[in-house]
Amino acid sequence: MSVQSPISSVNDFVVRFANVNGSGSASANELFARSILRHGVPVSPRNIFPSNIQGLPTWYEVRVTEDGHLGARGGVDMMVAMNPQTWDKDVASIEPGGYLFYDSTKPMPTSKFREDITVIGVPLTAITNSTYTDPRQRQLFKNIIYLGALCALLDLDPKVVEQLIGEQYKGKEKLLSSNVHALHLGRDWALQNLKCPIGLRVKKSDKVGDRIFVEGNSAAALGAVYGGATVCAWYPITPSSSVAEAFTSHCKKYRHDPETGKAKYAIVQGEDELASIGIVIGASWNGARAFTATSGPGISLMTEFIGLSYFAEIPAVIMNIQRAGPSTGMPTRTQQCDVIACAYASHGDTKHVLLFPEDPAEAFEFAAAAFDLAERLQTTIFLMLDLDIGMNHRLCRPLKWDDAKQYDRGKVMTAEMLEEGRDFGRYLDVDGDGIPYRTYPGTHPTKGSYFTRGTSRDRYARYSEEGAVYADNMQRLVRKFETAQDMVPRPLQANAAKPTKYGVLYFGSTSPAMDEAIGILEARGHQLDRMRIRAFPFHSSVASFIADHDFVYVVEQNRDAQLRQLIVNENGIDPVRLVPILHYDGTPITARFIANAIADHQDHLKVTPLRKAVT
Amino acid sequence: MTYIAKPKFHHPGLKKNELGYTHRDYEGKISTLCAGCGHDSITASIIEACYELSIEPHRVAKISGIGCSSKTPDYFLGNSHGFNSVHGRMPSVLTGANLANRDLIYLGVSGDGDSASIGFGQFAHSIRRAVNMTYIVENNGVYGLTKGQFSATADRGSKSKKGVTNTDNAIDLVAIALQLGATFVARSFSGDKTQLVPLIAAAIRHKGASFIDVISPCIAFNNHAGSTKSFDYVREHNDAVNRLDVLVGREPISVDYAPGTVQVVEQHDGTRLALRKLDADYDPHDRLGAQTFLQKHAAKGQIVTGLLYVDPDAEDLHTHLDTVETPLNTMDEKALCPGSAVLDKINASLR
């Protein structure tokens, strides 16, 4: 066996922290990620956590990436092994030549290590216990002490970390100084007792720019604030709860009347998802902008109301932070598995608008836009995030807002319009776009009232079971869906350097891994044009993109190739031309996975010409 | 039937209320329910109450679930917006509508299947949340539209039209509403309009969660011997604790009552409720007492009706959420959007 030399890499490696949940490690780990960002080096952190509050294993992975690859990479260069429960698995997951950082207070048998990795022991418990007596302090400061040791090992500037601690504990001097003290305890011990730095190092750079570091759920909630949502009804469910919680905290800051101090919003934690969507539908029917946030099981529960929203034409915004299904599935793992469930939610013939943001910046933009779309189209708009975008901090471009922008409240007939004698038919297609006018309750004493129902009715909202009347309405709804196609965010296309017969379609959180995979594939000689789908109904350019290529890969994070199914179904595409690339184990898709899967397929496509028999 | 257009002409001398509206202005389409249905009497009582209160008809939002009772909002207040929503989900739709515009009057119409079975949870939680509404359950103990199955309010031991005896215990929605903190709780009988009209009027003027359980016999499927929701049975077992007169404005109490038998309750908006006591011991301000009273009388097979509980100082969901006085649905980007300067600061805090 050849001796494995330790990995040597500057600003390009993966550190994974193995912790026990509930141990207070999350804030120290996040501090670590932010510290590297402050060195001007992009990072992409991910929480890998159990559906549990205390005691089970949790991991925090930080990909340090000067090149700005924000997708998960796969593999671990340095393991900070703080959890004895997962020790064996954690040690086994380290790349050959990688590093193992552990608490060496208690001696470990050599059989617990590997020969091809560098083992770094720091007596964390001993250092902690000799300094602190309070058990909770011991637990929390141990995390800061290992952060201090990592500072020395990875050559981080302690001033940067100190500054971040200063920002975090601004005004809480005691906490500030004790955290800084703990940081130096760990750093000093490492400097005095270990060879610092190791092969993995952080060097100051300028690759972060003006980008921000934010969770998708928080950005989406902020989009709802900017988009004018006033009513939010929700039921707690992982991984979506932090949307409503963030909306609450944003509203507390930005939505109180400066004079009266009163709230310009109403947030209700419903008794279940049915009540949540019911409240949204009621509020939207009455002219307020309303939304709910949920995840797969919640979508299943809401489907009856979603059908009502479609058929009675009531705006609604549903943010679906997808997690691995079916059933309870893996509540704390990511997937893009509700594409079909949302596109066709509810019984009968229904179709719904889906928006697929790639990161928090788009989550903000699309969330705000969803309210305009919902009111313009008078139907449900789904904002399809997933756990990977929603619950992880992601580096993205700064959020932008145009102050000249006015909300599009859609076709609303006012008292003045009714007074002028305008013909009001609630389901009357006056403009040929399939979108009728609506009135808000209480508009006019004698004109414009109507009875909203989920049963069939004519153009003037009168109950009807006539076949022709029903079909007329259903056809208008199709027309409306066609109108939606040109209103939703268009797909974005990027062509390969050289003309190619192959293309790739992808969406949502797959984006950073896909971008990185394109580079890997190009290096291996595979040229691919790519198109990122940002909404359903699909813009006509999706069909042309497919037509322009012999084969198109459809990369997605679910088992059944749901986006591919939707494309085949809605665009009448020959399924043979759409090659599914599927990742669905609950971990975020990686560039390595995509590149390998596509390269494999490309290799199979290579035709070895048969030699003609010469007679 | 609704395909028959209701004639619009009316007697020129028809009485007008304070706002100049006639009784006809509060009517809706022609009912499609069975002739003699108790629900139609409730519809008539709602029309009467709104007329007497001089409510602008279009300022009422009528919201219902699914079922015979939930069809009725089409038959009253034809100039109001109505919403025949999803089975058992009227309370959530009403809650959302109320949050969007606190200035309208919210009338929730539901049935016993809608509120005691499929929508039991939503009924309970809307009451808990103190949504400012008048929640009327048209309670016939039976699923009418699907032809006569028992509902959850059917009494144990009562017989279906097909002769089946109900073995499940009944849910008393009034008892639940009291327990969950409704601030106006009443029960009445569709056959007793003089009792029902003022109860509806008082409930509408009540700022908070008002709940009225109206026993409303289903003449098609639950009006036979052995039923405890038939006209005959309810008349025989009706135990009214009080009679109510609703006094709007400053008019003096002119009704002729024997001294000591009238209790006047003033609600937040100035409406006075004059309660004629029929049961000398009954105190409509005693929530616990009301619960005990109900249970004792139910055990004797009596149906307690009247204004069972009222808290004149009730609060509602908007008070709890401390929302602005301006209806949320009227606010535009100027009022709601924090703007780009704030966003720049937010961006800076995320670096």
Report what the structure shows.
The complex is a heterodimer of chains A (615) and B (351). Chain A is built from 19 helices and 23 strands. In chain A, strand 12, helix 10 and strand 13 form a beta-alpha-beta unit. By secondary structure, chain B is of the alpha/beta class. Chain B is 30% helix and 19% strand. In chain B, the strands form 3 sheets. Chain B has an 8-stranded mixed beta sheet with strand order 2-1-3-4-8-7-13-9, sandwiched between helices. A 3-stranded antiparallel beta sheet of chain B has the order 10-12-11. A two-stranded antiparallel ribbon of chain B has the order 5-6. Chain B is globular. The chains are: A alpha/beta (615), B alpha/beta (351). The interface between A and B is large, with 74 and 63 residues.
Short description:
The complex is a heterodimer of chains A (615) and B (351). By secondary structure, chain A is α/β, with parallel strands linked by helices.
